[in-house]
Design goal:
Blueprint (H helix, E strand, L loop, with lengths): L8 H30 L4 H16 L6 H15 L4 H22 L11 H6 L3 H25 L9 E2 L8 E2 L1 H23 L27 H47 L22 H5 L1 H22 L4 E2 L2 E2 L7 H9 L4 H17 L1 H9 L8 H24 L43 H17 L6 H18 L2 H9 L1 H8 L13 H8 L10 H10 L6 H21 L9 H20 L18 H7 L3 H20 L12 H10 L8
Antiparallel strand pairs: 1-2, 3-4
Helix pairs in contact: 1-4, 1-10, 2-3, 4-6, 4-10, 6-7, 7-8, 8-10, 11-12, 11-14, 12-21, 13-21, 14-21, 14-22, 21-24, 22-24, 22-25, 24-25
């Protein structure tokens, strides 16, 4: 009998993501349809309003039958999807589709982690930045083209004003400003996209609580309910952003964009028309289209941002759903469910591995048939299914200890091995003009020179030594430093603080001295501290929370979801093995799992809460050592606390479930004491 071919988990996941992509695209298509109705030619609407005005005077009953037919015809073609409105919808959808392409190419699950904001910026590759700006600018350009094409002739949005037959054509600044405004809007949206990390698929993570019956580690709300709660705030935020950028464009367009946009538009228009030399530059600094046309561009700008906001929202909501298909795990319908799941657990790509561990967590919580299949399959290639699951989950947990140890003992920088010296040919050099360098004892007193050259060297060296051996701060130097400090402190210190530091010689020495030797934020240079507190220094501050998250959760992206699902899957499967393992082989791995969870919990708690990681000298907002309570509160980092809570609850559940068998399986003495200490269990609670 031929062996069953295992379907890779990434293919199963790709099929599921394709279905979700279609659902998100359908909602974006609906948004494009609404925008297509809004930007349609308004001649029919004007005709309806004219007839309504007549009806108000002649008592609507006197309208002729033909006029009613015209009203119906105008309204029908305004929204009918298989006419011009449908064509506009399809073309506008391309603008939203470009955002989906961007999200697919840069999608990730965990939040970006780095020791500082500047480090987060460095984690972006030039390709990611170029893609983000490029796709948004293309989307804005395409939307503008469709908007101009859909507008009526009364809108006067043609690039060239042809004028009368005897007049030369001139450029129309209305479409030039519209393109520039939308391009500026695209750049602002791209900055928001990178700063707020729109590429991240937010997966909610909840701590396990006895107050609720929901055991899910990722409580994803229903799609419709979630959209009802966040759609309106997203639309309002997008509208405000568009209006703000429009107001800023009143200044930025004439100064930065107008000259380039005008010359580029003229270059394109010259391919089809002949312009006078006077058309090379705008006639005035302030555009003549302000302010009337400015208000007319607010509506398309708002619609453009709303199409971007909704596209990002729909993509994140549908892609971030649970790895389920009709209520069952994605691998349920595969020919080899366990093999497909194991291929996902061993995957190198973060997306595939995250969804595979999420699915394993769901299986360990509420799918007993799949749990039994994992325990029963003992003759799989590469080891039993359980042993491979155990290896994958423990590797994720062990990585925490590895990162902590590497931060404590960083690996030394290895220098390249010196290459063997090659014999080189002897070069014929010019005659030496000076004496060779002396290689004798440098600490012996040098004899006085006899020649004129030696006497000049002795005089010069004595002068140089006098400068090098002088005091650090002479009165002249100190006066100059006071003058420089007086100028610099006026911008960052209050008059009271300034007088205080000038009057204290010790603190003034700190001001004129180098970096603090204690490397504590509280001992920092006051002027440097003020700079770090300012917006200029904020990107360079390495806060305690950022550094701890980067070490515990990994870089450049957080593995929080992986860790929580690994702990949850491991503990739930071990507990379920008491009733579902027919061979009793799983219990042999309980002691090693308990020791791993104990070691990780104690190491992480000591590293995060007991001074294992010191505050960086740039973390000027970290509480001083004189306030231990404030320091303890500052060491509570939310994501790290979620990991600690998962480790403790998992360890506690294991000890409680295996309580009658702890001594039989080899958990006693020191191992049991440390495990209870790590889990936060009282001495008499578990025997």
């Amino acid at each position: 009998m031929a062996a069953v071919q295992t379907r890779p988990y990434r293919r199963i996941l790709t099929s599921a993501l394709h279905r979700r992509f279609v659902h998100a695209s359908a909602l974006s298509l609906l948004v494009s349809y609404i925008i297509a109705i809004a930007i349609g030619e308004k001649s029919s609407c004007e005709y309806i309003s004219t007839l309504s005005g007549r009806a108000s005077k002649a008592q609507f009953q006197v309208l002729k039958y033909k006029e009613l037919i015209k009203i119906f015809y105008a309204v029908f073609w305004l929204w009918f999807p298989f006419g011009s409105c449908g064509v506009r919808t399809a073309l506008l959808f391309i603008s939203s589709l470009t955002i989906f392409v961007l999200r697919v190419s840069q999608m990730h699950i965990g939040s970006r982690t780095a020791s500082s904001s500047f480090g987060t910026l460095k984690s972006f590759t030039p390709l990611q930045i170029a893609q983000t700006f490029g796709w948004y600018i293309f989307s804005a350009w395409w939307f503008t083209v469709i908007y101009v094409w859909s507008s009526s002739s009364d809108s006067n949005l043609e690039l060239v004003k042809r004028g009368r037959p005897h007049e030369r054509p001139t450029l129309n600044e209305r479409p030039i400003y519209l393109h520039s405004f939308h391009a500026f809007l695209a750049c602002v949206q791209a900055v928001f996209h990178l700063y707020y990390d729109y590429d991240r698929i937010a997966v909610p993570i909840a701590e396990r609580s006895s107050k609720t019956d929901d055991e899910r580690t990722h409580p994803v709300p229903p799609t419709s309910k979630y959209l009802q709660g966040v759609l309106l705030p997203e639309l309002v935020a997008g509208a405000l952003r568009s209006v703000t950028v429009a107001a800023a464009s009143l200044v930025t367009y004439p100064i930065f964009f107008r000259g380039f946009a005008w010359s580029w538009s003229l270059y394109v228009a010259k391919l089809f028309f002949s312009f006078p030399r006077s058309a090379a530059e705008p006639h005035s600094f302030v555009p003549s289209i302000f302010p009337y046309f400015f208000f007319k561009t607010l509506a398309p700008g708002v619609m453009l941002v709303l199409s971007w906001q909704t596209a990002n929202l729909f993509y994140s909501v549908f892609i971030g759903k649970e790895p389920l298909k009709r209520g069952q795990p994605l691998t349920t319908e595969a020919k080899d469910p366990n093999g497909s799941l194991l291929s996902g657990l061993k995957a190198k790509k973060e997306i595939v591995k995250t969804f595979a561990l999420w699915e394993l967590s769901l299986i360990s919580q509420r799918v007993p048939d799949r749990r039994k299949a994992i325990f029963n399959e003992i003759d799989r290639e590469g080891g039993s299914a359980w042993s491979q699951v155990l290896a994958c989950t423990t590797d994720v947990i062990k990585a925490i200890n590895t990162r902590i140890e590497e931060s404590k003992n960083p690996a030394p920088v290895t220098k390249p091995l010196p290459q063997a010296e090659k014999s080189e040919p002897v070069l014929q050099t010019l005659p030496r003009l000076s004496e060779p360098i002396k290689d004798g004892n440098i600490f012996t007193t040098a004899p006085k020179g006899t020649s004129r050259q030696d006497k000049f060297g002795d005089a010069f060296s004595s002068a140089a030594k006098s400068f090098g051996q002088s005091e650090d701060w002479t009165p002249t130097a100190r006066a100059r430093v006071r003058d420089v400090f007086d100028r610099a402190s006026s911008a960052v210190l209050s008059p009271e603080q300034k007088q205080k530091y000038l009057g204290s010689p010790q603190k003034f020495k700190l001001l004129t001295g180098g970096p603090s030797t204690t490397h504590r934020p509280e001992d920092m240079n006051p002027v440097l501290a003020q700079i770090l507190r300012s917006p200029i220094g904020q990107p360079f501050r390495q806060t305690y929370a950022q550094r701890l998250s980067a070490i515990v959760l990994g870089t450049p992206e957080s593995s929080l979801s992986l860790i929580v699902d690994a702990v949850e899957s491991l503990t739930r499967l071990l507990i379920a093995s008491l009733a579902e393992d027919p061979y009793g082989k799983v219990q042999a791995d309980v002691p090693s799992a308990v020791r791993l969870l104990t070691q990780t919990t104690l190491a992480l708690n000591a590293f995060a809460h007991q001074g294992g990681l010191d505050a960086h000298w740039t973390d000027i907002n970290f509480p001083p050592s004189t306030d231990p309570q404030a320091q303890a509160a500052a060491r509570l980092v939310p994501d790290v606390e979620i990991v600690l809570a998962a480790l403790r609850s998992g360890l506690k559940d294991l000890l409680t479930a295996f309580r009658p068998y702890l001594r039989d399986i080899g958990i006693a003495g020191k191992d049991l004491r440390l495990a209870k200490e790590a889990a936060g269990i009282d001495g008499e609670e578990v025997l």
